[in-house]
Inverse folding.
């Protein structure tokens, strides 16, 4: 099976290990991964900042690049939510609207794709570590991805997956929010982090690069890097970029 | 207006506020879960309640005249007001005609919104708020910080001090003692008042019933004892039938404070009580603007339960006053473009991380986080022009950098080189955006994922086979 | 620097006309998917089985601090009420003027059974009712799902009986139990359009200070239901 992988801009630039993990995880279940390197950003920042006019061009570009029949797999809940739902805010019409309606039906978040296509059962991996899952909001509430993610993580032999009491609450990233009200953004992140650290995990796994950079930044800023690593969940399966010990 | 970022910093540093918010919202969230568990399915209940509100908003044009004719036919006076000033003027006129010196007011968000308290006071009518929390904030010369719990931002000790200093109630930190003392002090006021002002939770078009929801009994005291009852409503509060009101009542209390039902729900018939005059003031004040604003119309579905505030991680940290006007929290952000004063229409929509917890909590299915994105689009004319210009310039630059493969790579390279060649400037820029110190800024990777992915394709993969994928990546 | 809000142009001198016109102008047909109504269902649905209704109502009452006493028949009601008033050391009670209480001879019976008791019957004013220790009312229905008493009245003094005293006693028959509010409202009785209807789901309360629940604020601190089996 051929899949079109879209590794969003933040992951591509700041977390290439996570991107590699995603590609390898897909390949490990037999998928043939193609990745169009003309893909950049889905336009989410401009939409969320309330400038849909400035997002339009990026969205149209994305739609044009995804104008094929392949399933599009994206390892980021918020980008999936953008392409699936929020493009509706851009008043698309004609050919663009057709492209969008085609894309909406075949754009998937990674775990969602693996589980819905019955591929998760083929995943075999081992990781002897305790992992806390923090649910990224758009992955949780727009993609409804908690179920598929739990099912996929169930395939990770040896791992102790723990749910944090605050795992369903926003980590405080929020895209533009993180730079407009940084003190609040960090305060929220730190509260979630402290709740998670009480469970003494080796890894904190997320489904969105933005949230991972934010929480990872706080971990680093607070000098906690030796205790815990913030990763994309795909990394747990392939070991890409995983710090051990 | 102070800068929003400064306001937020100030709220974060206020330890008493942080404790009050964390404690109270923790309790409310737990209770709500218990109350919702008694429903067969919250999702189905939301569906039922959403339909009721959606249809009511859709049919405002016919339901309002229907309501009016039911009421007027039975002797209740109905007054219409386009804006806050007109609404206040009409209520003040009633008070003047009746030479009202004292009036009791039970918790009403719309009265707060139009500034009725101050208008009556200016016209020589003393206003005494009768809801406990509302009375506390009135005495403290503050405004309510929550839709259903006006003094949620205060600790018992602070409440005790306010009550002691402003109304001579014995100093205490015991909520029970304080609550009882306030009620006791207010009792003679109810008997004295010549007018009772209340909001309403719903008005039933089909039968002309006014529905009032409360726990304390202060609202009942007001309309039972005063010779004149003035009810003020936002025009969206109408529902088609009693059965519809029943549907909403089944989710309102559960959603608001995690109660199965509030202690009291009054369904007042269209005919006023013998020996009493009743007025209903129907207020627009920006609501018809919301009605005509495309998808934003959904904000008129709101039943003011406050569930979105209770669920909101930002509200939990900054409290209601940070929003700067009557309606705080997610619903405050989506109402602001239509009902809010121009000072708050600019930055208020930034008090949101778009997490969607509000949408999930809303019992009438308002897609709050989506509407907040739209509210941001409406906020720009009210923001400082240079801030908007800067933001758009950045986003345009970003769009350009994302507009092609080469530009994309160059911008990445630029980012890396800036860090290497101008470390100090880069750090300063990052710090101004809050990405430094306590939150380390992400560093651009030496090699983009896409490059690594392609390179790997050119080598034998782990499986020992030559990989055929990624050809489009050439 | 923020742009000033433009004052909205007045289209008409009459606010009513202007508001309705604005609503008419912006009107768009309803989205079909959201039309029609559905009923809210509960985790526990007692149906119309009297025993199940009673069991659910009892659970709700206990949880909501509504005192309840289940009596085998009307004969025992007068004695039970008298005993409760006596043990509360009630000096003044105010009684609703209604057919049921007339038939039972409630006013005379209580006055005869409780020494030094002043019983306020029909015609008592709001001041007098407020000075009573206990207000006694009937009720129109009892909603099991939310443990709610449905009271009614045309006069403000009738409504004051369940509000102004410190204690509210309410008398109902077990057959008046209904499953839920929505259902009851859809088959509402003939008095409904004319009389006020008050739903009482417990003694008055507040949680305004630190979310600490305090029972007994402006209204009664105690609500007791006397449920009579026939």
């Amino acid at each position: 099976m051929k899949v079109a992988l879209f590794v969003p801009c933040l992951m591509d630039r700041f977390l290439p290990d996570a991107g590699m993990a995603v590609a390898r995880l897909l390949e490990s279940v037999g998928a043939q991964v193609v990745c169009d390197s003309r893909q950049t950003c889905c336009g989410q920042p401009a939409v969320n900042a309330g400038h849909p006019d400035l997002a339009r061009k990026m969205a149209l570009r994305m739609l044009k690049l995804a104008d094929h029949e392949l399933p599009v797999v994206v390892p980021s809940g918020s980008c999936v939510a953008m392409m699936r739902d929020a493009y509706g805010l851009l008043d698309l019409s004609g050919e663009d609207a057709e492209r969008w309606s085609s894309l909406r039906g075949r754009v998937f978040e990674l775990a969602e794709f693996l589980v819905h296509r019955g591929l998760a059962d083929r995943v075999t991996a081992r990781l002897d570590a305790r992992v806390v899952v923090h649910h990224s909001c758009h992955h949780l509430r727009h993609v409804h991805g908690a179920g598929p993610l739990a099912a996929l993580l169930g395939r990770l032999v040896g791992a102790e997956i723990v749910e944090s009491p605050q795992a369903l609450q926003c980590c405080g990233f929020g895209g533009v929010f993180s730079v407009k009200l940084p003190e609040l953004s960090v305060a929220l992140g730190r509260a979630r982090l402290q709740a998670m650290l009480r469970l003494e995990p080796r890894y904190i796994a997320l489904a969105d690069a933005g949230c991972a950079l934010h929480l990872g930044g706080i971990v680093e800023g607070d000098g906690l890097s030796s205790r815990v690593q913030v990763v994309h969940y795909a990394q747990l399966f392939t070991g890409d970029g995983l710090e051990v010990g | 207006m102070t800068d929003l970022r400064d306001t937020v910093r100030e709220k974060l540093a206020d330890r008493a506020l942080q404790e009050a918010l964390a404690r109270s919202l923790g309790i409310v969230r737990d209770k709500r879960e218990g109350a919702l568990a008694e429903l067969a399915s919250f999702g189905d209940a939301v569906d039922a309640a959403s339909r009721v509100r959606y249809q009511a908003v859709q049919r405002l044009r016919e339901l309002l005249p229907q309501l009016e004719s039911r009421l007027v036919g039975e002797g209740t006076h109905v007054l219409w007001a386009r804006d806050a000033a007109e609404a206040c003027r009409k209520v003040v006129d009633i008070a003047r005609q009746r030479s009202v010196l004292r009036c009791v007011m039970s918790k009403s968000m719309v009265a707060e919104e139009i500034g009725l308290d101050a208008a009556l006071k200016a016209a020589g009518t003393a206003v005494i708020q009768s809801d406990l929390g509302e009375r506390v904030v009135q005495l403290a010369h503050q405004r309510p910080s929550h839709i259903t719990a006006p003094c949620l931002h205060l600790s018992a000790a602070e409440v005790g001090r306010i009550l002691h200093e402003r109304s001579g109630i014995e100093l205490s930190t015991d909520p029970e003692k304080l609550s009882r003392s306030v009620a006791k002090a207010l009792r003679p006021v109810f008997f004295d008042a010549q007018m009772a002002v209340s909001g309403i939770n719903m008005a039933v078009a089909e039968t002309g019933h006014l529905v009032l929801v409360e726990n304390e009994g202060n609202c009942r005291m007001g309309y039972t004892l005063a010779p004149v009852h003035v009810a003020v409503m936002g025009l969206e509060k109408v529902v088609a039938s009693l059965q519809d009101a029943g549907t909403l009542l089944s989710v309102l209390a559960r959603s608001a404070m995690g109660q199965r039902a509030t202690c009291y729900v009054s369904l007042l018939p269209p005919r006023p009580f013998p020996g009493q005059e009743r007025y209903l003031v129907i207020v627009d004040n920006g609501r018809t603007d919301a009605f005509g604003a495309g998808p934003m119309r959904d904000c008129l579905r709101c039943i003011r339960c406050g569930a979105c505030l209770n669920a909101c991680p930002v509200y939990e940290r900054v409290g209601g006053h940070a929003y700067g006007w009557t309606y705080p929290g997610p619903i405050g952000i989506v109402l602001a473009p239509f009902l809010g004063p121009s000072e708050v229409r600019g930055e208020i929509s930034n008090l949101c991380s778009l997490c969607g917890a509000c949408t999930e909590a809303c019992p009438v299915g308002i897609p709050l986080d989506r509407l907040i994105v739209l509210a941001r689009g409406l906020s720009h004319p009210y923001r400082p022009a240079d801030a908007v210009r800067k933001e758009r310039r950045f986003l345009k630059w970003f769009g350009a950098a994302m507009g092609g493969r080469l530009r994309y790579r160059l911008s990445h390279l630029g980012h890396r080189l800036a860090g290497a060649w101008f470390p100090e400037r880069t750090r300063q820029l990052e710090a101004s955006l809050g990405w430094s110190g306590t939150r380390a800024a992400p560093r651009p990777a030496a090699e983009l994922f896409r490059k690594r992915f392609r390179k790997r394709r050119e080598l034998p993969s782990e499986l020992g086979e030559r990989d055929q994928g990624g050809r489009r990546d050439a | 620097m923020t742009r000033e809000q433009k004052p909205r142009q007045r289209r008409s001198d009459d606010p009513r006309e202007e508001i309705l016109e604005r609503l008419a102008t912006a009107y768009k047909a309803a989205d079909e998917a959201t039309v029609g109504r559905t009923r809210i269902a509960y985790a526990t649905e007692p149906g119309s089985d009297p025993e199940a209704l009673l069991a659910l109502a009892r659970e709700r009452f206990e949880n909501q601090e509504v005192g309840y006493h289940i009596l085998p028949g009307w004969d025992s009601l007068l004695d039970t009420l008298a005993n409760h008033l006596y043990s509360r050391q009630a000096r003044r009670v105010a009684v609703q003027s209604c057919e049921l209480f007339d038939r039972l001879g409630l006013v005379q019976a209580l006055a005869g059974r409780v020494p030094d008791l002043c019983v306020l019957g029909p015609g008592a004013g709001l001041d007098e009712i407020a000075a009573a220790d206990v207000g006694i009312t009937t009720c129109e229905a009892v909603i099991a799902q939310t443990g709610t008493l449905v009271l009614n009245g045309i006069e403000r003094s009738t409504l004051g009986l369940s509000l102004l005293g410190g204690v509210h006693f309410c008398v109902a028959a077990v057959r008046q139990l209904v499953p839920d509010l929505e259902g009851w409202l859809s088959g509402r009785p003939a008095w409904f359009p004319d009389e006020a209807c008050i739903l009482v789901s417990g003694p008055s309360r507040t949680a305004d200070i630190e979310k600490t629940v305090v029972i007994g604020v402006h209204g009664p601190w105690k609500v007791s239901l006397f449920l009579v089996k026939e």
Remarks:
- The helical segments of chain C are 15-25, 50-63, 75-87, 99-104, 106-113, 126-130, 156-160, 181-186.
- The two ends of chain C are 74 Å apart (CA to CA).
- Residues 1-5 of chain C have pLDDT under 50 and may be disordered.
